[in-house]
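Working notes for the structural subgroup meeting. M.R. asked for a predicted model of this chain before we commit to crystallization trials. I am recording the input and output together here so anyone reviewing the notebook later can reproduce the run.

Input as submitted:
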Amino acid sequence: MLDYLAWRGDLSFERDPFNSVDALLLSTLSYVDLAGVVPSPGEGKITLGEASEKFFGLHSEEELAADKSFINFAPALLRHLAESDRFRNAYLLNYINDTDISREIQFAAVEIDTGDGIPFISFRGTDDTIIGWKEDFNLSFMTVPAEEEAARYLKQTMSGRTVNFRAGGHSKGGHLAIYAVAADPGMAERALAVYNFDGPGFNNDALESERFKNVRPKVMKYIPETSIVGRLLTNTTEPVVVKSSEFGIMQHSPLTWQLEGKEFETCNATDKISDLFDETMTTWLDEMSFEERKVFVDELFSVFEASGCENLSMLTKVGVRGTKAMIGQMRQIRNDSGAKVRTLVKMFFVNINELRGEAAKEKIEESRILSIASVKLKNGKQ
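Returned structure, recorded in token form:
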């Protein structure tokens, strides 16, 4: 994405119309904590360039460097957007942020006016906190608070206006964008496109409802090869599979997605890990009632929480003490969901080990190449 801004950031939307990469950039922009930077609903607007200057005046480099989550790239992305001719003068407005651990809600959204006459509504996705990922899994059995907030936000933001709009988000943000548009027939009619970047799908009952019929043809979904979150529940449309420079669950980070010019570099299909997760979860969820799904999700995340880790980035490096605590928690699960929980936890760590294994392979290959090069140099060969 940063290469895209470096090579094409000088092109206005008049010269080069809005595309899916622009949608991904604006979808991830809502990961930035814009509190105190972008005005709340009805309180004015600020250019992206001004917002960047204000944001970095409020947050030091040391403070930003201390963020070890997978969305810690967002402030740097804000800066790059602000430095580009394409986005510098875009307006940011109607910012809202509602995060409450006790209610298990993470919701944030912002409107972006790029100047092409079609506003973009960006819904914030899941960070890699345990509670954030749990809310994604909660979608399998309930309407989560963030969904209702998203529908309310979109209706209030577009109320009294006649313009069409685009909406989108990464991770849970993509799901929220679809839900918000589908919740109101008027919004569904005015939406030109709804972008879902590796976000969860929906229950079959919801997809078969009348309100989704007008939205589904407008949904554009993109997932990486090893998609996990994007394979939760049923997709509203057949997703486009994008190549990533990372391995395993780290492919969820949009900064790793590969581009060819202004298009995503695509693959023919998802990989075995993603397919196994999708197959396993689909089979289990079809067998479980909503109440059984709730028990399953609570039990699964009680294991992750037992590690003492606050987010998945920490979980990928969990030590001996955290691992023992997780094993102890799994042993306490005696109900029918116990075996399923153990299977999913094992799948998660196989994924992590594969990531580490690939990195180790790269280091071995690099050492081998350097050794050969060293021998050739000694022998006087180029």
